[in-house]
Amino acid sequence: MTEPRALGDLLPALGLEADLAATPILGVSADSRAVKPGFLFAALAGAKTDGKRFVGAAVANGAAAVLADADAGVEADVPVIPVTDARATLARVAARFHPRQPEIVAAVTGTSGKSSVVTFLRQIWAAAGHQAASLGTLGVTKPSGATYGSLTTPDPVALHATLDALTGEGVTHLAMEASSHGLDQKRLDGVNLNAAGFTNLSRDHMDYHPTVAHYRDAKLRLFSELLPTGGAAVVCVDGADSAWFCEAAKARGVRLITVGFGGETLKLASVARDGMAQILDIEHEGGRRTIRLPLAGDFQAANALTAAGLAIGTGVPTEVALDALETLEGVPGRVDFVGERNGGAVFVDYAHKPDALASVLAALRPFAKGRLIVVFGAGGDRDAGKRPLMGEAAAAGADVVIVTDDNPRSEDPAAIRAAILAAAPGAREIGDRGLAIRTAVSGLQPGDVLLVAGKGHETGQIVGDRTLPFSDHEVVRDALQSGETAA
Ligand SMILES: CC(=O)N[C@H]1[C@@H](OP(=O)(O)OP(=O)(O)OC[C@H]2O[C@@H](n3ccc(=O)[nH]c3=O)[C@H](O)[C@@H]2O)O[C@H](CO)[C@@H](O)[C@@H]1O[C@H](C)C(=O)N[C@@H](C)C(=O)N[C@H](CCC(=O)O)C(=O)O
Ligand SMILES: Nc1ncnc2c1ncn2[C@@H]1O[C@H](COP(=O)(O)OP(=O)(O)OP(=O)(O)O)[C@@H](O)[C@H]1O
Ligand SMILES: N[C@H](CCC[C@H](N)C(=O)O)C(=O)O
Ligand SMILES: [Mg+2]
Fold first, then answer.
1. 105 bridge partner residues
2. ipTM of the assembly?
3. Ligand 1: which of 185, 187, 206, 381 to mutate, judged by most atoms within 8 Å of the beta carbon?
4. Residue 111 CA: which ligand 2 atom is closest?
5. pLDDT tens digits, residue range 38-64?
């Protein structure tokens, strides 16, 4: 149980009148349903509804005070504290309510590669002798184990409760993912950052962001507003959009570390495939190193270098960071080799956006002496515009395309498939994801590579408002073991 805190200590900049400032606060929440007696309720305008509609419910549940945007006109039977930016204020209040944070925190943004980079950075820090954790789409992974989470960047109250608990457990180094939703909704505004990383930018979440510029600007906030001036900015400079992030870092006056083929701090001079591994030639300020990265997929080299850059930016000696790349373990569900059957190999990958699908197909192409086959779908209640683009990417990058269901959520799965199929001429449609995977596995011929894309590490399929148990890994493994062959 967290100790009560005086409201005035949680909102020191407001100069609250003495009686109000002394109000004991037992918890903080932006969800009226989670409010308990003595809580501070933050009434936030959201994407679906407005928290001010639930002030009455929060007070009925025992809220001691309400935090709200000054222009929202919130009234209540308990004191209302008007502020200019309730979301940012909530993040800072959460940081004061759960005050401990790991000594070193690095946040990573970008359209693809965030989960991979935070996982690699955790491993590099651990190899350098630190108590390290990572937090993001895969949940929280720490020295004592892993717990699954639902959001890539949790809401500020959950986030700071986690940071506080991790610090209490002795974690000194945390690598976390900063999603565009998280940045836009100011979920990380209370986090004390030491470093920020950028992977790449392509299309995603256009259901949420009104324009591409809005999406990019949300990501830029990490560099232009959240990273303090003493921090380090690590930018993978191989994509055109990286210039925005380099400029933001320069304008902020932070240390800029660039990585990738065009990188100055860690320059990838050459890459050569070595079975499921890659040999990287890296030039850095102190010299040149040849590293065997034990991971498949060209882009994992860029992700590994971004992680190494973040390790260097947070005090790990360059040689130690580069040595650690040789021992990196893969990320669950990212270019994840599951097994072989009849001389054909099967990979599970989390590509659920056009650019990721194109990248992973390109990364797997060299392994396909025969056909490159892809089974994938697209999530419901998410950016509908990406569906035809994913269809195009699959048709362009694979020899055989099977369109199936991802997480349909509240949408009609057949309509989602139809939107993909319209852009993937010649593709086959098998709605049932299990059947689609079994059909593809049973048809494998020597030299084929099968990619099952879109759900990666996920262990459920969201249909309507129910999550049914489903794992691409399990279905693939069962299919690999069964003796069935395609008719
Ligand atoms: C679109 C979106 O991002 N929504 C997130 C956002 O909700 P919101 O503030 O817009 O909420 P809303 O439903 O409009 O409600 C407004 C306010 O009323 C409150 N309310 C609502 C009902 C009620 O009875 N009482 C009450 O107090 C809500 O708690 C909220 O504060 O803030 C909530 C708390 O932080 C999140 O749980 C919620 O995530 C939803 C569930 C979600 O699915 N988000 C996804 C899209 C997301 O955030 N994804 C990113 C990126 C993923 C990636 O690409 O990796 C992520 O970081 O996971
Ligand atoms: N550097 C990269 N460039 C292009 N594609 C990538 C890169 N890294 C990963 N991918 C693709 O994106 C998928 C998701 O990777 P990862 O989970 O590391 O990214 P993420 O940014 O955390 O994604 P999400 O926003 O869904 O959490 C991978 O399975 C792969 O298909
Ligand atoms: N964090 C991403 C995950 C998408 C995964 C994919 N399987 C889907 O359901 O679309 C999102 O919520 O948009
Ligand atoms: Mg992620």
1. 174
2. 0.96
3. 185
4. 21
5. 999 999 999 999 999 999 999 999 999
Let me know how long the chain is. 487
Q: What is the pLDDT of residue 96?
A: 98
**pLDDT at site 1:** 58
Q: Say if residue 211 carries a ligand binding annotation.
A: no
User: Which run of H or E residues covers position 361?
Assistant: helix 354-364
Q: Which two tokens stand for residue 152?
A: 């890539």
Which ranges of the chain have pLDDT less than 50?
Answer: none
CA angle, residues 151, 66, 17, in degrees to nearest 5? 130
DSSP bridge partners of 347 = 337, 451
Asked if residue 185 belongs to a known ligand binding site, the reply is yes
Q: Whose CA is nearest to atom 7 of ligand 2?
A: 113
What region does 87 belong to: left with phi over 0, alpha with psi -120 to 50, or beta?
alpha
Instruction: Give the residues surrounding ligand 2 with Cβ less than 6 Å away.
Output: 110, 112-116, 137, 152, 177, 199-200, 299, 302-303, 334, 349-351, 356, 359-360, 456
What spacing in Å lies between the alpha carbon of 277 and ligand 1's midpoint? Answer: 39
Q: Is the CB of 433 under 6 A from ligand 3?
A: no
**Distance from C-alpha of 318 to C-alpha of 320, rounded to nearest angstrom:** 5
Of the bound ligands, which one is closest to the alpha carbon of residue 119? 2
The DSSP bridge partners found for residue 67 are 42, 81
For residue 305, give the DSSP letter: H
Q: From CA 331, how far away is CA 136, in angstroms rounded?
A: 12
Which one of 203, 375, 382 would you pick to mutate in the ligand 3 pocket, going by the greatest count of ligand atoms within 8 A of its CB? 382
Q: For the purposes of burial, counting CB atoms within 10 Å of the CB of 138, is it exposed (0-12), middle (13-18) or buried (19 or more)?
A: buried
Tell me, rounded to whole angstroms, the distance of Cα 426 from its chain centroid.
33
Asked whether 374 and 479 are in contact (CB, 8 A), the reply is: no
pLDDT tens for each residue of 386-423:
999 999 999 999 999 999 999 999 999 999 999 999 99
